[in-house]
Amino acid sequence: MNLTNSAVDISLFSFPITREDIFGNRNPLVLEIGFGEGEFLIDAAQCDRSRNYLGLEIKGGRFRKAVRAAEKLSLENLRFVHVEAEIALRQVFREKMFDLVLVNFPDPWPKKKHSKHRMFNREFIGCLAKVLMGSGRAVIKTDQLSYIKQIVSEFERSGLFRPAYPSPGFIEARTGETETKFEKHFREASQKIFSAIFLNLP
Ligand SMILES: C[S@@+](CC[C@H](N)C(=O)[O-])C[C@H]1O[C@@H](n2cnc3c(N)ncnc32)[C@H](O)[C@@H]1O
To answer: 58 pairs with which residues across the strands?
Structure first.
C-alpha cells in the first residue's frame, strides 16, 4: 500500500484489519465516524502527529473531497475509508483497535417516522464497545437536544459504557476546538451544541 495515499481500499486487506495494516505502527488510534468533508480529522492529524486518525464516511462525494484536501498535505497519520460505519465496525476492524471514537453531528433524523434511521441504537453501541479498547471513549456532538438525550439513555441501557458527565450525561459544548462544517453552521445560527463522553467499561 502507498502510505502517502490517504484513501484506504479495505478490499485489499484480509479481515480483521489491524492498526499496523493501515498505519504501519501501533500509535494511539482515533476513529471519526461520518467525517463529512474531513476538516476535523485533517486539522487533528496535522496538530498531533503522535496519534493516528482514521475516518469512515458513507457518501462518496464527501469522501473524495476529504481525500483531495488531505492528499495535498501527505499526512502519514491520516487515512479515510469509504464505507458504511456499522458494517465496518462489525466485520472489518480488529477488536479493541481504537482508543477514541468521535461522532460529530450524526444525521439527526428529527421526524418521528424516520427515527429508526438514527445511528445510535443497541446494535451500533455494541459494535462501538467491541472495537474500543477497554479504557476507550466515545465522544458525540449534536445540535439536537432530543437526540443527545436518546443517545445517553441508549448508552446507559447498553450496560457497556458509563457517561463521563454527571446527570443528565451531557453538557452544552463550548467553542475552542476545531469546528466541523456542521458545527460552524450551527454556531453561526446561534444554535446550542451538546456533547457527551462515554467510557467503555472493561
Ligand atoms: C450531519 S453530517 C456531519 C458531517 C461532519 N461530521 C460534520 O460535523 O461536519 C453526518 C455525516 O455522517 C455520514 N454518515 C451517516 N451515516 C453514516 C454511516 N452509517 N456510515 C458512515 N457515514 C455515515 C453522512 O454521510 C454525513 O457526512
So the answer is: none
Q: Which has the closest alpha carbon to 91: 131, 138, 119?
A: 131
Q: Read off the pLDDT of residues 12-62 as tens digits, 9 standing for 90 and up.
A: 999 999 999 999 999 999 999 999 999 999 999 999 999 999 999 999 999
Look at the block and give the residue holding cell 496538530: 47
Residues with CB under 6 A from ligand 1: 33-36, 56-59, 62, 84-86, 104-107, 119, 180-183
Contact 40, 178 (CB under 8 A): yes
Residues annotated catalytic, as ranges:
107
Q: Where are the alpha helices (DSSP H) in 24-133?
A: 39-47, 60-71, 85-87, 122-131
C-alpha to C-alpha distance for 24 and 43, rounded to whole angstroms: 21
Q: Which domains does the chain have, with CATH numbers?
A: 10-200 (3.40.50.150)
Q: What is the ipTM of this complex?
A: 0.99
CA distance 119 to 108: 9
Q: Determine the distance separating the centroid of ligand 1 and the alpha carbon of 36, expressed in angstroms.
A: 5
